[in-house]
Amino acid sequence: xxxxxxxxxxxxxxxSLELLLKGxxxxxxxxxxxxxxxxxxxxxxLSPTVILMDIDMPGEGGIIGVEKVKRHFPEVxxxxxxxxxxxxxxxxxxxxxxxxxxxxxxxxxxxxxAIENVASGxxxxxxxxxxxxxxxxxxxxxxxxxxxxxxxxxxxxxxxIKGHTYKMIAHDFSISVExxxxxxxxxxxxxxxxxxxxxxAKALRMRLFE
Amino acid sequence: xxxxxxxxxxxxxxxSLELLLKGxxxxxxxxxxxxxxxxxxxxxxLSPTVILMDIDMPGEGGIIGVEKVKRHFPEVxxxxxxxxxxxxxxxxxxxxxxxxxxxxxxxxxxxxxAIENVASGxxxxxxxxxxxxxxxxxxxxxxxxxxxxxxxxxxxxxxxIKGHTYKMIAHDFSISVExxxxxxxxxxxxxxxxxxxxxxAKALRMRLFE
DNA sequence: CTATCAATAGCACTTTTGGGGGATAACGGA
DNA sequence: TCCGTTATCCCCCAAAAGTGCTATTGATAG
Lengths: 210, 210
Hints:
The structure is a homodimer of 210-residue chains.
Chain A: E1 2-7, H1 11-22, E2 27-33, H2 39-46, E3 50-54, H3 62-72, E4 77-82, H4 87-96, E5 100-103, H5 108-119, H6 127-140, H7 151-161, H8 166-173, H9 177-191, H10 196-205
Parallel strand pairs in A: 1-2, 1-3, 3-4, 4-5
Helix pairs in contact in A: 3-4, 7-9, 8-9
Chain B binds a DNA duplex (30 and 30 nucleotides) through helix 7 and helix 9.
């Protein structure tokens, strides 16, 4: 028997959902609210196994909601349920540990399906959502853009990132500090930055080093 | 009409798949092979719209296969199809741009479904696969490591990462350079680093900023 | 009420960095 | 052979950064 808690500010929709789920033999709706302001307390009292969570609600929305729930009750399954499908929110929810992500145009049958699914450890999402998740996978591993740094410059930059001073770098390579200086000057110019901090940040963001 | 190309080393299974797909009115199997050794050439000649790709094959397996295909023909949809479900391979495929990921225990009906789905831009995956993808999302954002930096210190560090000098930071916040200095001193101590470069590197690696 | 902490600020002093000039030797391709 | 690139080195000099102290204020937790 799935104990279901619903967060959805549109009352009509919330009631429809309740009706739909109550019609199922193995589902029990333990509550429904219009925002997540008291989500911790409510989850503690109602002990749901699955939460249907809208994203856009007045007061505390679903993104804060899923974060809170997952931090305090990681064992409760949270299914996001929204009309909004921008990547920002999607990613925010997934990072917070949402167990699934449905668009509101999902059919009632699929919603039932998704609840069963998430309760048995799956992660239901529409193929469209899945596609976007995969997209970010690809872009996160973007190509190491070539700045035209020479091998030596890369070595120097690497040590700079480690926090070594010019003097230490010079010592490491048994070259003069002046040479290190020259390399750094060239590095900064090639990277279009004005100081070490910026170069370090840019290098790491470009994943020149890990 | 979907033009389908199959890579699967088990001949019996490959033939079953061909039969299954040929039975559909809108699917045409343009070829089937037992390894990916000549995948580029084959794709060029056969012009598939969707590729069903097994992972474990003698010679060049599906992981190399999907990489090659996606590099040379990014518009072709690649659906991974495998008994193996270890995370390593899964992630390798997804990073290379696979459009979906099915386990072999998937029913024929679902396979048909998945092909339709991937061809219309979705990313079919079993809820189980989806769950694992979400897992890695969470772990990738690991260590909420709390360094105990105060809000102000975070702001200062953020600007440092942007390459601002102490003077610029002071100006940005309308505070004295001495104060910026103080903050940085505290930041370096809390982070156990000795200079800005190291702090920037550490902050970015800890994903304090993105 | 007090102790702690965050944020602010100052000063003295040293070291490091960055920007501007150079220069030379070695190597490799056009 | 000549030119471009790489790696090396030098000088000057001003600006920036880093270290070690102290100190005041306001908010907050106990």
